[in-house]
């Protein structure tokens, strides 16, 4: 395995920034959620890369953390999407700039 | 050498899928490209010898989260797509600039630090038995908490997304039609 | 006869020995892929004709009998027909997704055959987490169903696709949960290890197959029901509903793409049947120690054939389930039963010392079976009751 660790970290940073850009720029709530999932995935990749290249790979810390992160991200996606469906039912829209009725 | 080429190829495809997921106009295409990005990441986990995590990522993200996203798109607005709606918020240039700044802030220390340029120690494996032992001995508290969290999320999602209409009641064959009473006949 | 048992393995080693050492791994993989595709492609062709003849006989009619002796060349005729049909794509369809959907369906299912142990030392890829790989790959084909239904821009297709995905996701849960006791008691996710743990005979003549334990028997039944639903086969073929929504998500497909979908569906059935044989029926082990001279791959093929016949039999017998009946079955009946099955498997493992005497074994078997039977009866009775006036929940959302 000759690819240096920094390549994986740069790739993960790029994935994170793509997810961030999507979450910040797009107006549809579902796309914000997709961006969020991409960001979580990029962080998971960081964990696995550091586990693989790190000093104590036998302790499996990176792998376990990533497993928990995947489970929690799935739960959060489910609840977030249910919220979007409920919002759509009431407001008939999920464009983020029309959902600002709490804005002072 | 083959390892490097594989990594660059998969990384390129994953980045392309992620960019497509965040910039396409058709929502369903976005969701499917996001599923492709998740699958690419699963492949990279396999490259990093974390097979259990790779398969779990594929099962959870491609097999469940992507389908959830697709269902939500279809249940909210997806079928009619008005092409006149603006794609991004009006201040998109500021957003892109901030993203670029953030990327630079993350990447600069990575490239500048010499200890991060090392290659991998060989022969790393994450046997499933060891993951299982670790989960049930050292990480038992997080495991049970995540179980509780997933149950709460499942119930919560069902309650939040439940519609206000009463549920569909099929006419069961075991119910014979009720005989009309005398008053109902006279009222008819 | 060990030589006959390992004949494919020795043939494989001899063939790759003919090539230079540098490309031997590549040749090995290509050879395995070619073998699996040939064997299961032929199996697909044979199954189509066997299914139609068997369905016909069960419905008191002959099946196809015009093409070739007893209709045996019917798959050839079907193949030629599919290949020369015009490939029609609707004008407003999403061209890329419409094209990609059959591929996304078929490719993961071919991958699933790589972890099944077809005989002694005959697993294509020995993975530490083979069972997880199988389920992960199986879940990728659900996206293909959605892509097919959505890209056709047809309301019936979309309805069929939504039903299909809802059904496949709902039945994935009992499918995975029914195989968890097997993993628990075998101590490994690797399919070769699971088959190895089912070797040996108790009392000299009863094999240690998982189906001969109470949790294994119940798990086998639950796994088969969930597998029928996962492959969209009758009585769970509402997404394809031949008499209701034309062909559901397959409406707008014709010619070779339809053939690919058809192939993918049958291959999914084969993969899940192979998994059922591996997990519950002892894989390639022989049922009696005197019959061990028959090669292991022949035992696998025999058990596989019997299960395929059971699937065809069920298709001929049971009527189609309605959507709400199907989803109720999955969530309210199968999931609790699989969880109770898991509990019973744990009780079975904990009471292992009882098996030393015949009376202890009977006690162990009957008490475990009683727990499952009791829960089955309670669930069955309560779910079939005439519903009381529905309580209407409102929340502040």
- How many domains of chain C, as an integer? 1
First-residue to last-residue Cα separation of chain C: 70 Å
Number of helices of chain C: 13
Shape of chain C: globular
Main sheet makeup of chain C: 2 strands, antiparallel
Number of E-type strands of chain C: 2
- Class derived from helix and strand content of chain A: mainly alpha
Describe the structure.
The complex is a heterotrimer of chains A (104), B (188) and C (397). Chain A is an all-alpha fold. Helices cover 74% and strands 0% of the residues of chain A. Chain A has three helices and no strands. Chain B has 188 residues and is mainly alpha-helical. Among the domains of chain B are: 1-80, NADH-ubiquinone/plastoquinone oxidoreductase chain 6, subunit NuoJ (Four Helix Bundle (Hemerythrin (Met), subunit A), Up-down Bundle); 127-159. Chain B is built from seven helices and no strands. Chain B has helices at 2-23, 27-47, 51-76, 92-112, 128-137, 140-161, 182-187. Chain B is extended, with a radius of gyration of 26 Å. Chain C is mainly α. Chain C has one domain (2-384). Chain C is 65% helix and 1% strand. Chain C contains 13 helices and two strands. In chain C, helix 2 packs antiparallel against helix 3 (24-58) and helix 10 (256-280) crosses helix 11 (296-317). The interface between A and B is large, with 72 and 84 residues.
